Amino acid sequence: MEQRTGLLLSGGGARAAYQVGALLAIAKLWGRRPGNPFQIICGTSAGAINAVALACYGARFRLGVRHLARVWRNFHVDQVFEADTRAVLGSVGRWGSAILFGALVRQNPLSLLNNAPLRALLERELDFSALAQALQAGDLRAVAVTASGYSSGENLAFYQGAPDLEPWRRAQRVGVPSMLAVDHLLASSAIPFVFPAVRIHREYFGDGSMRQMAPISPVIHLGAERILVISGGRIQEKPRARGEAYPSLAQVAGHALSSIFLDGLAMDLERLQRINATLGAFSPEVRAQAGLTLKPIQTLVLAPSRSLDDLAAMHHRALPRALGFVLRSIGATRRNGSALLSYLLFESVYTRALMDLGYRDALARTAELASFLGLEA
Asked: Which of 136, 254, 263, 280 is the most buried (most CB within 10 A)?
C-alpha cells in the first residue's frame, strides 16, 4: 500500500509567503503529473490559509500553487487589516484610553488591528464548495486547520475529510470533524492582541499556534505516514548573543510571537525523531509481538536559510506611513526588534523576497524532495 504523504504549513503571519515560494519549487518538481503530491494538508495560522487555498484546487496542484503565488506576490497590508492613518491612530487612541481610564471606558478594544479586509479577501479568493468536491472525489483525504480555545484552553484541529476518519482527544488536543469555512481560518490566524478572536459555536478561538504542544499530531491522526513540514522560521537553535541594551517593546513582542509560532514545532520534531529512533531499534515483527501500534513517521523539513527578521528590517519603509510610525516608535524597525515586523509586513516587496528565498531553498534540496515524494530527480 502506498504511503500517504502529508503537508504541514506552520504559522507566522506574513512569513507564510516563504511557504508559497517553496511550494512553487515543489510544483516545478512535480511537473505535469496528475493529482496532488499531498493527500493530507494541515495548517496553522497563516499556514492554515495557505493549506485551505491549496486544498480548494484538489488534484490541480500546480494551478493551486500558482493561484497562491499570485495573491502573495501582490500583497498589501490593507488586504489584511485596516492600515490607513485614521484606522491606526484610532486604534492607538482606543488602547490608550483603555489603559489610562480603565473602567471609565464603556467598551475595551477587541484587538490592536481590524482584520475585516482579510475576511473579504478570503471570501473572494476561496471556494469551499470546490474543497468539498475534491474531498468527495478522493483527490484529498483530509484538510485541517488548528485554533486555540480561550475558554477551554484546548488546541482544536478542525478537519474535513474522508468519512472513515475518527475524531480524537488527547491532553489539551482535540480533533473535531467540521465543514471548514472562513471563520475557521480567521480563528486560526487571530494573533493574540493583534487580531480579534473568532467565535465558533460556543467558544472564542485565537491563533492555532498558541498552546499547540504537538503541531505535527493532526497530520498523523489523519493518516499521514510521511510529512513535509514547511516552516516560517528557522528551526535550529541560534547562537546566544550578548545583549547590552534593554529589550524594546517590539523585541519582547517579537520574542513572544516566535515562541508561539516556532518553539512548539521545533520541540515536536525533536520528539518525533526520538520516537523514530526508538522504533527503529526494533524490527516490525518485534513491535507487533509487543503490541506497539506506533510506526516510524518520515519527515522532511524546509525552513529559511537566512533570518527573516533581517529581511523584514530591509523593507520596513514599505509600511504605510502611520503604521510605520507606530512600529518605529516601539523599536520594530531596528534589527533587534524586527521579528515583530516580520510577522506584520504584508507588503509585496517583502512577500516576494520571502517567496524567492523559499523557492531557492527548496530547489537547493531537489534531490531530497524528489526522493521524499517518490519522484525521479
From this structure: 254
